[in-house]
Amino acid sequence: MKLFDVYPLLTIHPVKAEGAWLWDDNGNRYLDLYGGHAVISIGHAHPRYIKRITEQLNRIAFYSNSVQNRLQQQLADLLGELSGYPEYQLFLVNSGAEAVENALKVASFVTGRKKIIAFGRSFHGRTSGAVAVTDNAKIAAPFNQVHQIQFLPLNDHQALRAAMNHDVAAVIVEGIQGLGGIHLPDGAFLQTAQDLCREHGALLILDEIQSGYGRTGKFFAHQHAGVQPHLIVIAKGMGNGFPIGGVLIHPDIKPWPGMLGTTFGGSHLACAAALAVLEVIRDEQLMRNAHETGGYLIDKLNDMKVAAVRGMGLMIGLDVPGKMNELRNHLVYRKKIFTGESKPDTIRLLPPLSLTREQADMFLTALADSLQEINVVPATA
Ligand SMILES: Cc1ncc(COP(=O)(O)O)c(C=O)c1O
Q: Could you report the per-residue pLDDT of 34-53, keeping only the tens digit for each?
């Protein structure tokens, strides 16, 4: 059987990883500034993560959501404490898109409405509702185009005010737009979105799948703006590679039996992985590291004055118009550094939250050399 060929692949075959390092099958070592699409939060092969998962695997890996699973409550408690949302409720799923799908569904159940407001350059996933609120017509099949979605420009207060009415079930926005090229909703815009949702009985959904879990120096990116959404969706960094996602649900939203459900969501093994991640984020102060090392990187990148830099903490975008592909390939094949991309022009940095200052410096040196080698800046600069 052949694999369904949908992914453009690098010609690299990683076989081992540790911290922010990867090794390929030829023994080459790579610095991982991408974390496999922002998934690797606490670093590859963290010993506490391996220990917790291994111990759990030896006890019980899975049983369905028809029995008590104390690990789910332990996870909810620790997540509530570290995220600053102890009074919220947690629904556990397996991926980002599934989290988004369930959040949209809850918003629709609660309001009895169908219409969703989303934003230009958004990415929320590829399942039916998630892809419908994603601003990329190319990845939505006719089947996905039945939802009532209105796209507005991000940070356009007037447009949002004009679009809001009593038909709107929810406004969905990323904490920081990831795939769209690291674009930040401004704090005042999130406040406006929150106020308008309250005024019109709609729910505010924050997609923190890429920007959450400590990446920006706070647990969630929207916490820099001081808003409190009704629904927050999480995945990626939550399991450090183990598939798990979740929806944080406002305490006023009441569940009923059968309202939502999943076979795999919240398995013993997934909870063990997610608990290990939170314990490491707490005990190794990775949010502080994301703030400090990320701030350092952003300052140094701005000092280079060769590319527009956007982002917060360890979620950074670097615009290199016309040269993004060449730079990314140069970095990975010549300098052995993984970075991500956002078409057309943005290099994305989404390293493990444990990235050290020394590793940040290695990247900065490699980047400065690469920019000369591919003639973005003259060799004498
Ligand atoms: C902001 C955001 N939302 C949702 C998703 C979808 O997550 P998944 O690929 O786990 O379905 C992604 C994935 O890149 C994302 O970045």
A: 999 999 999 999 999 999 99
Strands (E) across 137-221 are located at 149-152, 168-174, 203-207
Structure tokens at 19: 């911290």
pLDDT, mean over the chain: 97
Whole-angstrom Cα distance, residue 100 to residue 247? 8
Residue with the nearest Cα to atom 4 of ligand 1?
124
Beta pairing class for 346-349 and 340-342? antiparallel
Nearest to 97 by CA among 58, 57, 73, 132: 132
Residue 306 confidence (pLDDT): 87
- Residue 11 tokens read as 């010609």
**CB 170 within 8 Å of CB 203:** yes
To 5 degrees, how large is the angle CA 322–CA 352–CA 179? 40
Residues with CB under 6 A from ligand 1: 37, 95-97, 100, 123-125, 174, 178-179, 207, 209-210, 235
Give pLDDT tens digits for 90-145: 999 999 999 999 999 999 999 999 999 999 999 999 999 999 999 999 999 999 98
Among 136, 215, 236, which residue has the most ligand 1 atoms within 8 Å of its CB, making it the best to mutate? Answer: 236
Domains parsed from the chain with CATH numbers = 14-45+285-373 (3.90.1150.10), 47-283 (3.40.640.10)
pLDDT digits (tens, 9 = 90+) for 213-250: 999 999 999 999 999 999 999 999 999 999 999 999 99
H/E element holding 72?
helix 70-83
Candidate of 39, 40, 184, 209 to mutate for ligand 1, largest count of ligand atoms within 8 Å of Cβ: 209
The closest residue, in CA terms, to atom 13 on ligand 1 is 125
